[in-house]
Design brief:
With 240 residues, the protein is mainly beta. Helices cover 8% and strands 32% of the residues.
Amino acid sequence: MKSFNRTSALGTAVLGLAFAGMAGAGTVSYNSTIQVPTGGTTSVYFGTGNTDGAWTVDNETDGIEIALRGAIRTSGPVTPTGTPQDTYIVPVGASGINLAFWDVEYSIDLDPTGSGSTLDFTKVTQSITVTDLTDPTRSVLVFNPVGNGVNGPADDAKVGNIAAQNSENPAFANPYLANPFNLNAQDTYQVTLAVFDLSAHQLASDTIDVEAVAPEPSTWLLLLAGSSLILVPRFRKTCA
């Protein structure tokens, strides 16, 4: 993830909190794939080695498609579980560069192929909200994921000005939270991606749960064996 509060986007935070309960008239699909943006060549484009699938996807009647999924940094997307399939079980602990072993990957497509939408990023705002459901005393984190990364606007992969994707790691939030993210906490996190028009009306909303658990010893060995690969993350457009 490119920074769980990039430059303190207070306006986006207010919008995200105020309108988090408003839902669009969309259809949610689980453990699913996403569409190719208009002008794009592939559905997943935010880095090499990334595959499609395992997304929780919200498709709106106005043509917007947004999606979230949980992923393990060295292995890729996690297959969601539950009823519906919107819970991603990930390991606790830190990678070799003191980041969480897991990421949340997002996709925003304002004009999927054939939708006919006229929206672009000059006509909308967007936010990701992260809440620790296990420990409600922790800060609620809200940030704008698009074009606001720690490495500047190029931090997020884009198709024209109508689609964006990236991978976000919760450990990036540590300098900004009153109660910093705990790499070893066995907590459940609710993550919501939302898009609003410039009048603050919610156009689309997508929510997943990420459940961080202590993995079995055999799983730890596999994760630690791949920790050297984390120094050049596979699942990001650019390194943090």
